[in-house]
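Final report, Chapter 2: Outcomes

The project's central promise was a pipeline that accepts a single protein chain and returns its three-dimensional structure in a standardized token representation, suitable for archiving and comparison. That pipeline is now operational. To close this chapter, we reproduce one record exactly as it appears in the project archive, with the input sequence first and the structure output second.
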Amino acid sequence: MSKRRRDDIQLDLPPTKRLSHRFHTLAGDSELWKRQYYSQWVRPRARRLANVTRSSLPPRVEYTPKVSTWFDHSHLAEEGKATNWKGQYRLRHNWSTGVCRVTEVEFPRPPAPPVLVKLCAGVVFTADQAHGLRAWCAKDPAYCLASIPFPKEIDETAVCPTALAVSQLDDEQEIVVGFDDGHFNRYVFDMETSRLYLQSSHIGFKDGAITAVALSSPYLLIVSQHKSLSLYNLRVSSHVSGNIDESKNLRKLASLNAANMVAPMTLSLRTSGLEIVATIVYSFYHIGCGWSLGIQELRFNPDGEQVESRLASTVDSQYGTTQPRGRTSSRIRRHSTGTDASDGHITAAPVAPSIMHPHPPTSMSYSHPYLLTSHADNTLTMYLLVSDSRRLYVRGGQRLWGHTSSVSAVQVTNRGKAVSVSSRGDEIRIWELEPAVRSLGSRQLLQEDNSIQVNPENKDRDESEFDSAPQSLRGDMSDSGLDGALDDVSVMHGCVGFDEERVLLLREKTVGTQLLECYDFT
């Protein structure tokens, strides 16, 4: 029997299982779904990555039941943990087609500034002045797992949170909240007991609010409104409920000042070998090609000593040229010449840029090596940041089409999976960027069908059910914080985040209430 015929029979099993006990058992056979999962998702990606890296696959790669040998699937190979392969196949299929279910949670009287939200390992964390730090179950966003108030100032008013970051540890999650008075708190969420603990409180800056935070335990990077940057080693240890320590288990590794960072900006913190790599991406205006991105990469050894500082920009990529080999930093330079990355020879550069941005990006996201920006002209721009022991440069640049209105928020992972959202929040698209890597820097375009629009299957029904509900029921739902209605949206606050199973968005309705939406692909 041919492979195509065998796959067709397997995909036809779910409808027929209602008619036969034999087919019902066969349709639930985990091994069948495991083989189909490998054939549909694992094998094609391995072949695609081999083409990108110009490496060769073995002439004949047989299916193996050992998931630990599958590329990038170690999370499904844990000892003693059974995998529901039918569910895994359904999850990947729903992502590829944009099929999901949406759940909405409304904050009736939103504080100013807006609620800060982060998603990590199936838990949604929210921070606001009125309610403090709260943890919610992503599968049921109406259920609050834990909460803890923020400390109050001398006049009995709670401090206002301005930045939020979350990092996953073994059996707990570490949360850092930055405030408008320049200090930050460290919290721990115990996943077994579903409790939040205040780990410690520290003064980050004495003269300005903390505006951005990047956390990769045990390292923390914070930025103030005056463009001051500080890098810390948190040295995570056991926690005691209510115990506040101003200095224990905290070490400042570096403190820097920036001069030309313009919003929007994004931070990244990761480890590479024994080095700590902190990356700041910001926007600036270039006379030749309009708004561009500047990248500064700081490398530190484990003792906190700065090993290297590198600079790069997207200007060369916007002109269709590539960073010269051997250069470890770059400055904006005149485009009378360019460099070919294949042989390092000087070649004539285009007179006009191939990528021109007359307006600053609406948002940006960087997860090494992918750098993605969104724009008001309905497009996204993707770059690949190359960083090794010798140099830092931006490889190519690719415009992405697919949105029908202005794009206001974007998020990307280090696997090249991205989610973008329109300014009104009514159009959400999922992108797989790995296939576009080969076309970076060339005239080949990434076609529209490489992105999928999210289409919640229950959205229309939820709206009609809410519209037909009695007025008293509507009031009860609003008072409890739950609301099935979708009023006109005036502001899209951004793509909060996404994981393997769901996407979370935070947006504001015309009446002033904020809406947290969870799109579940399971």
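Archive annotation: The longest strand covers residues 275-286.
This record, like all others produced under the grant, will remain available to the consortium after the project formally closes.
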